[in-house]
């Protein structure tokens, strides 16, 4: 499966971005609004247009980084938030990333990677987290596509990847999803074991 930089750039060029809400996801906004430590070192992998990064940055979380294969997606963030530090808009592959973060935010990246990479995602996110770091976000709890992103899955499948590596805090159906995703999103909150 060719999910290369050119694949993703073409999706943005052709406005084939059905996953893009055009705003911060309500469940994540609700979570962000509860955070008090503005110095948290945050990563959003495969962030795309990353309205979440924009919201965090504008809320005072100035240490929020986005990594994405698509230069177009990163340019879109720069255009919307010109003061966003370029060093925190990382053009690259999540699986090659180095560094340590206190919080990793999952928002439509897990459903965009080849499903065969999901165990590696669980391992890589763990590797990037500081001691007691958290992986928080949303996963689709629906079949979706099998031949192209977004790829779906089930709570049981996902727990197989994460439970051996993380202390599971929350892994439940979202109560505050947007209407079109209602009943098909899981809110996850896990701490590095």
Please describe the topology of this protein.
Elements: H1 5-13, H2 26-32, E1 42-45, H3 51-58, E2 64-68, H4 71-80, E3 89-91, E4 101-107, H5 118-128, E5 129-140, H6 155-162, E6 166-173, E7 185-192
Parallel strand pairs: 1-2, 1-4, 2-3, 4-5
Antiparallel strand pairs: 5-7, 6-7
Note the main attributes of this structure.
single chain, 193 residues, alpha/beta, seven-stranded mixed sheet, 27% helix, 24% strand
| Radius of gyration of CA atoms, rounded to a whole number | 15 Å
Q: What percent strand?
A: 15-25%
End-to-end Cα distance, whole Å, is: 32 Å
Tell me the strand order in the biggest sheet.
Answer: 3-2-1-4-5-7-6
Number of strands: 7
Descriptive report:
The protein is α/β, with parallel strands linked by helices and 193 residues long. The chain has helices at residues 5-13, 26-32, 51-58, 71-80, 118-128, 155-162, and strands spanning 42-45, 64-68, 89-91, 101-107, 129-140, 166-173, 185-192. It is globular and about 40 Å long. It starts with a helix and ends with a strand. The model has no long low-confidence stretch (mean pLDDT 92).
Concise description?
The chain is α/β, with parallel strands linked by helices. It has helices at residues 5-13, 26-32, 51-58, 71-80, 118-128, 155-162, and strands at 42-45, 64-68, 89-91, 101-107, 129-140, 166-173, 185-192.
């Amino acid at each position: 499966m060719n999910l290369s930089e050119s694949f993703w750039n073409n999706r943005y060029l052709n406005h084939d971005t059905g996953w893009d809400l055009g705003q911060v996801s309500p469940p994540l906004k609700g979570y962000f609004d509860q955070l008090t430590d503005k110095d948290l070192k945050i990563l959003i992998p495969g962030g795309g247009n990353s309205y979440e990064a924009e919201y965090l940055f504008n809320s005072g979380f100035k240490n929020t980084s986005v990594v994405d294969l698509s230069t177009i997606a990163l340019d879109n963030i720069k255009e919307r938030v010109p003061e966003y530090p370029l060093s925190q808009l990382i053009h690259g592959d999540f699986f090659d990333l180095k560094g340590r973060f206190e919080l990793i935010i999952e928002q439509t990246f897990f459903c965009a990677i080849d499903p065969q990479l999901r165990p590696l995602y669980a391992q890589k996110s763990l590797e990037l987290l500081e001691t007691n770091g958290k992986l928080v976000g949303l996963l689709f709890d629906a079949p979706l596509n099998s031949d192209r992103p977004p790829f779906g899955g089930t709570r049981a499948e996902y727990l197989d990847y994460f439970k051996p590596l993380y202390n599971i805090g929350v892994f439940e159906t979202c109560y505050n999803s947007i209407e079109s995703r209602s009943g098909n999103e899981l809110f996850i909150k896990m701490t590095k074991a």
